[in-house]
Amino acid sequence: MKHLILATAISAVFAAHAHAGDFSLNAAAVSDYRYRGISQTRLQSALQGGADWVDSGSGLYVGVWASTIKWTKDAGGGGSTEWDIYAGKRGDIAEGVSYDVGVLGYAYPSNGLNPSANTLELYGQIGSGPFTLKYSHSTTNLFGFADSRHSGYIDGTFSKEIGEGYGVSLHAGHQQVKHNSKASYSDWKAGISKDFGVATVTLAYVGTNADRNAYASPANGKFTGRNALQLMVAKTF
């Protein structure tokens, strides 16, 4: 059933392309896929890509994104890919104040974990100028943590272009894992990017205060939330 829902959602993205709206593709290579500060690839590189459709008139959007991963196998399951399916609506609350609300499903085909790694979240975001504040709330167990339904992640981001293709960003967040206090933690990220036209290169410093035992890779024992530099090369078409 989950695979059927995933296939239907992907089809909806491309079906939307046939109607009014803006369609785009994106691709990236990253030295370490970090999500909310935690490495999804055992501190190794990943390939990523996605597609988005946006109706500029209504603010409705739908998208699909995928990345190579390693953590589901390390956790004793299977699979090597993460698929994200999302849909929502964005617009303005008032002059200079924006909103973005939606739903995001994380699918890990053949993950075989119990509880399953598959996760569904609802999210809401407000923004003003370069600042955004977002809250995400899980309606299922969170990424395979037992009894973790209704976990929440709150984060704030500052992102600004500073001229000549350069941009800077600062991010801080806190992940609360319901009924799993040792798995709760805060994360941060500071980055600088440069648009070279052919691609955008971003160098960031990312880290967490996560519990080393809760987020140690079973494959090699390395702490997947450690402070580190991250390099990304990305392109939107």
Number of DSSP helical runs: 2
CATH superfamily: monomeric porin ompg
Which architecture would the CATH scheme give at its second level? Beta Barrel
Q: Compute the gyration radius: what is it? A: 18 Å
Give the CATH class: Mainly Beta
β-strand amount: over 45%
Number of domains: 1
Q: Extract low-pLDDT stretches.
A: none
Describe this structure as you would to a colleague.
The protein has a single domain (2-236), classed as Porin (Beta Barrel). A hairpin with a 4-residue loop joins strand 12 and strand 13 (200-208). The strands form 2 sheets. Strands 1-4-5-6-7-8-9-10-11-12-13-14 form a 12-stranded antiparallel beta barrel. Strands 2-3 form a two-stranded antiparallel sheet. It is mainly beta. The protein is built from 2 helices and 14 strands.
